Known about the structure:
Layout: H1 7-20, E1 32-36, H2 48-66, E2 70-74, E3 76-77, H3 81-94, H4 99-102, H5 104-118, H6 121-128, E4 139-140, H7 144-159, E5 163-173, E6 178-180, E7 185-200, E8 207-212, E9 223-226, E10 240-242, E11 249-254, E12 266-269, H8 275-283, H9 311-324, E13 328-341, E14 349-358, H10 360-372, E15 377-379, H11 383-392, E16 397-398, E17 400-401, E18 411-413, E19 419-421, H12 425-436, E20 443-444, E21 448-449, H13 451-455, H14 458-461, H15 470-475, E22 478-484, H16 488-502, E23 508-514, E24 517-519, H17 535-542, H18 544-554, E25 561-563, H19 565-577
Parallel strand pairs: 1-2, 3-4, 9-11, 15-23, 22-23, 24-25
Antiparallel strand pairs: 5-6, 5-14, 7-8, 7-13, 9-12, 10-11, 14-16, 17-21, 18-19, 18-20
Helix pairs in contact: 2-18, 10-11, 10-16, 17-18, 18-19
Amino acid sequence: SNDKYIHSTVENRIYSYWEKNNLFKPKKNKKKFSIVIPPPNVTGSLHMGHALNNSIQDLLIRYYRMNNYETLWQPGTDHAGIATQALVEKKLGNEGIKKSDLGREKFIKKVWEWKNEYGEIIINQLKKLGCSCDWSRNAFTMDDNLSSSVTKVFVELYNKNLIYKSKKLVNWDTVLKTAISDLEVDQREVNSKLFYIKYPIYGTNNFITIATTRPETMLADTAVAVNPKDKRYKNIVGKDVILPISGRKIKIIKDNYADPTQGTGAVKITPAHDFNDYDAGSRNKLDIINIFTESGKINKNAPEEYVGLDRFEARKKILIELSNKGLLAKEENIKNKVPYGDRSNSIIEPFLTEQWFADAKKLSTKAKKIVKKKKINFFPNNWSKTYFQWMNNIEPWCISRQLWWGHQIPAWYGPDKKIFVANSYKDAKKSAKKHYKKDVELIRDPDVLDTWFSSGLWPFATLGWPTKNYYLKKFYPTTVLVTGFDIIFFWVARMIMFGMNFMNKEPFKDIYVHALVRDEKGQKMSKSKGNVIDPLELIENYSADALRFTLLSMASPGRDLKLSEDRVKGYRNFLNKL
């Protein structure tokens, strides 16, 4: 019979009718309801997490729209600094073009070309899912108005001393050659080896033994520390040891960081390559020696035969040399946590560089108060614990990235390296002329801002801030944010910080936190496991309605969804009956 419901023709026909008639635009009313979309990466393709996240938002938006609220669902995409640059670099690599051959301006032009060709893919997929966003307002974090809001925020925070430049240890990605924030570091438990190494005590035949999982960093040791209460080492505190291989003399010092119950109770201190050692180094005024290049190779501060070796090659060579000299006491197999970069999948090195930081502690004060006062509520409520736990222990936020794609930092340097932060090159020139009493050459800082800096402004920048306009007045604060729990710190906390500091108002009243979509066995979907269910295939086979209905029927707060194709099939049959 020909009365069979063919979803593909029906859904496409209905959606284009909605779009043509502008049915997703807000209609004037006293009562209002608004949501900003968590902007998907412009490089992205619709996955099951997006499907759940946007089905929930669409359900809310349609319900309030049907109830005559003035309703805005603000859409847009994120420029995804690292991901996009890596993707375009790879694409150019396949054509035999290197980023360095093009230079910055031409490379950025290539990224824009890529964006104009492929950047709408995820938007069109959201339309296939039936999302009723006001597409006439579609935003992109690198658009002119969003970029100018980023500059304004940077300049104002800099002028309030809430943004500063500092030489600090950061998480360094040796593949992408950029700093990344703590949040982009994935601590993975792996099988490792612990190496016990004998350091000869100068002028004696004795040794002090230390244990380390990263022997290559010993080339940068500047002390050995023991605990002041450790009786075993009382007599040798203050003596020198000869650092094996490097041959430098370093001191045995007292510091509480050395734990008598761990390893041998004596620890090597490498201030340039370990966060705890850096603190110990500052307390004890130790030298800081960096032995790595940006790509994780050994630099000129090490003995000649090591210079230019990759860090893991150097490790092998050091172990052989120690073994030959009889200084390798023993090896132990252990399990420990090793930091990986979540984008490059390579081991992260603590690395000493000059970076820009935001004073997250000061920025978080109002952001904590507003959640305490219940002006913002988490659903389920237990996520507020996670929020406070992170906010109460917040560290300075490293906001600079050594990339080309992104918002370039609005800072220029004079001939004597004096910094001029300004809204434009013209303004920087003016300030410089005033300072030097003449025209000088200014060089712009090459770094770009962390992507989460710009997406932190999303709820007000997408509504047109800093320009005063109807949308900003009407729809800020937005009503609700719908998000996965995995970006509470990355994104949610930052939107609250920026909203409180620039709008003096919370960016949303409620935060609805949904769970993960897993496979039917409850396992996380991953390409390597081969258990990824593609929402677009389900839409094609069973309809967008069936997929949305399935996800929504399973989405009880806080519980992971175990999705199977059979469920979608079952709900398709149910919907066909309706």
